[in-house]
Amino acid sequence: MPTAHLGDIVSLMFMAIALGMDAFSVSLGMGMQKIRLKRIAIVGVIIGLFHMIMPFLGIVLGNFISSQIGGYATLAGGLLLVGIGAQMVFSSFNHESQRLAQPVGIGLVFFALSVSLDSFSVGLSLGLSEVQTVIALLLFGTASMALTWTGMILGRKMRGLLGVYSEMLGGSILCGFGLHILFG
Questions:
Q1: Residue 117: exposed, middle, or buried by beta-carbon count in 10 A (0-12, 13-18, 19+)?
Q2: 0.85 exceeded by the pTM?
Q3: CA–CA distance from 109 to each of 23, 57, 80, 145, 147 (Å)?
């Protein structure tokens, strides 16, 4: 079993930050909803777990799944983000409607899944290399959790500055990021 070198750990740290940046961007928009700090903490932990589970599944299943699954996973993640973002924008016009894109229950699972699908593809490629799986997974989870918390806290602060337009802006950010995933 090869030992992890400092260069490998630094490379994995940069990869973890890159994978967590989508969680940061999406959390910035999601944080503009009225969300309590306790819920923000839970969302960060769940997204961190998904950023550990998805690459692990990718590593385990890497030998059995064709390389085309990465494109489908990216497509699904982009469509989920556009859908959640559009729902947030439309609900900002109708204050009586109940929000569907709340990060609780199944909504939280979809949210965490949509921002961690790209890490599944990364897991597929990591499965072919001699990377230290445990170190990689811990770095991926920790980075995405911290970046999710940071994004949601910043989004929450911006909500106070933007008032009623914050949910519309947050939904627009989610839609934009989903479109970037789909077409960028």
A1: buried
A2: no
A3: 13, 16, 11, 15, 18
